[in-house]
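Consider this today:
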Amino acid sequence: MKLNADMRMSAKRKSLDADQADAFLATAERVALTWYPVFLLMFRTGMRPGEALALRRDDVNLTRLRIKVEREKVRDADGTWTIGPPKSRKSLREVPASDDLAEVLAPHVGKLRLATSAAAALPWLFPNEQDPATYAKPADGTRDVYALAKAMKKVLKAAGLPVVAFGFTPKSGRHTTATLLLDAGETQARVQDLLGHDDIRLTAALYGSDRKEVADTNKLNRHRHSVTGAQG
């Protein structure tokens, strides 16, 4: 596998540090509450944005604290958004849900079950609230990727974090999860499993170099326990 330095540097630039991640999530809960569960999910599990938006409610098991990743919202060859299999075989996976994520998802799912709107009756964990009669295809029932990016930009500005300089995007949640876990001493193999990389060399190339051999985990307990027990 040949990976260039630009890919590695891109992932690093788009990773928030621990303080920035905390500030981002706290601000999201305040100024973008409807998007807060999506952001917390991506920052705690390392899911790709399209994987998070394509989740169904029955993918989430809050008793076992596990979430199944079985599909992804992607663009097809003609630019149309579709729901299909995730990026690779290894991307079909089950990821752990941290306690704080479960505490947020439980009432979110509960509200969907009680809602009377037609959109809420659809199986998606994060449904598009537009009238389902306007949907031309199943992917239309999920939240919009561009709306996610717009919400992230709003939160970054409100939190006083760089919007353009470091190129933070919705995928920054994934990059942040991987970087902070490795800095906290997690193994590349465990992070590879969490992210759904087919080849550990990709994980190492994107995030593994310049990681500390022994890391101070005091600041990253939340990130560590989101992975602990993944093989249980």
Observations:
- The chain has a mean pLDDT of 83.
- The beta strands are 60-61, 66-69, 72-75, 81-84, 93-96.
- The chain has ten helices and five strands.
